[in-house]
Design goal:
The protein has 19 helices and 2 strands. It has one domain. It has about 475 residues and is mainly alpha-helical. β1 and β2 form a beta hairpin. α3 packs antiparallel against α18. The longest helix is centred in the middle third of the chain and has 32 residues.
Amino acid sequence: MINLILLFPLLACLILFIFKKGFLNNLMINIYAVLHFLVSLSFGLFGQDVLPWGVTPFFAISAKNFIFLAVMSIVFLAVAIYNNGYMKGCAVDDRKARHYTYMILFFVFSMTGAILTTNLGAAWVFIEGTTLASAYLIYFHKTKHSIEAAWKYVFICSIGIALAFVGIILLTVATGSLNSLFYEDLMNNAQLFNPFWLKLAFVFILFGIGTKMGLAPVHFWLPDAHAEAPSPISALLSATLLNSAFLMILNVFGVMVASGADGYARIMMLTMGFLSLFVTAVFVYHINNYKRMLAYSSIENMGILIIGAALGGIGAVAAMIHLVGHSLIKAAFFLTSGNVLELYGTKKIKSVTGLLKTDKETGWLWVASFLGIAAFPPSVLFISEFMTVKAMIAQNKIALCIAFVLLLTIILFGLAKSVIGMSFSQESVEKEVPEKKLSWTMYAPQMVLLAAAFVLGIYMPLYMTDLISLTTKALGF
């Protein structure tokens, strides 16, 4: 089944290349999304009694990565459904649509490989593959701003990947005669590694892969890329790509924990996490593009994830809960931003007013997405952020706790100012907004994603709590 979700996108690209039929474009994306979801669902329902649940030499589905795979499957399915309506509104020919489909399939294939691989070197290759695939998707609309964003993305992420490669080389120096980059081998032999080279390797890997995760100060590609990419791609970038990079960091951090050098790693992670919150707090008040606003929100939430992981214990559990909640809500937020762009034809915050009056469904989805990402109860993010604060207090990190709450509050007001103005303000806009009827596929996915995020904030099934506990233990926390 692992081979199935890895090989199908390659087969689908071959079919598209041979037949070149327009109707196959969305069809292949939909088939792959359903297949991806069914494979994740089958392992979730029937594989929990056997760990690892699925194994090939370089790939495995286990407690360590199943949450990441399941979240990706859910988000990809929602994006695929939304994409059916979205592409109808894009005036593109079959050739351009086919290239778009190629790259989505290869993008999801690369992220799936990065999540499922059991080898650090292979993970590096797949993460590089995500850069190559998503660069075209960012450039899809072929505007001046999109080509700038694509080049910035390729340039910065290529530097990050190069740094990560240096880190992997340094890690092989630290391992001595081990000659293996399989995570299990690294974990089992971690106490024998040279501490100096191991710490140096972690710095390079954290900064290198942190670039793909969107952590400050190596986040500069993210606001531009998310702002210029088509909304379905922005949802995938924020809700799945960043998670894939996060998992790679966690696997290397697990080696640091096993080696006893985790104190050094935790300081590095906390520093990047709080810097990410600070950067978002500074810029969120000066943004005039609502998709850039959501991109900075992603930087904030990646900071929260890395902070939770660095705290360990209940903080690590909070990070896993936050990962699930952020992915669901941010995907819904970005997809809804596609509706706003379709209705108003602009990304300027000040040019979007009376959203609830223009399109009631889009307006309430926009407001609900904000409430979810701002961690208003019953959003599941309220639980994760509350647990993160609790972890800081339990570890007597009172100064960090105060800074954490203060920065989140500043960011909350910045987001609220824009969202409330767009949704409820009745001020005149630059041009009259024509009435448009959007497809039901551009509403339903967000409704389901948000409903799931709010239900989890009220009731979290025992199965999910057990799975999160298994994940944190498997990752070495």
